[in-house]
Amino acid sequence: MTNRNISFIVKDQAPLMMRPSDTVQTACQQMCERRVGAVLVTDARAHLKGIFTGRDAVQVLALDANAAHVHLSEVMTPKPDTIEPERTAIEALRMMCDGGYRHVPVVKDGKVVGIVSRSDFKGLELDQFEDELSLWERIC
Question: What pTM was estimated for this model as a whole?
Fold first, then answer.
């Protein structure tokens, strides 16, 4: 299938979600254990507040901050762009390319249902997206 709905990609997913008051150290430990590149920062009702990624962790380290004392709310990207589960893989790839990021939270009715990253997409979807980019480059 070349242009799956996002709902198909996240259907069995249990995304890593943490609270704004959790520390960067705890988030990094969880990211390492779960082998994921991002944490969705949510409230108790799974409403998205922000996203914390490996890039954010690098910034904390570069500032020589103590990760055990820095809360996610201090370093997360608040109110990140999101995508609905009914949208398509190509639409998610466009968002990532246009926004310069590798992860997009999937939200339905205000609640987190998953997250997609570039590695979630299959060869044909990536090929189709690359063809689309190439066409736009020739037109512009």
Answer: 0.85
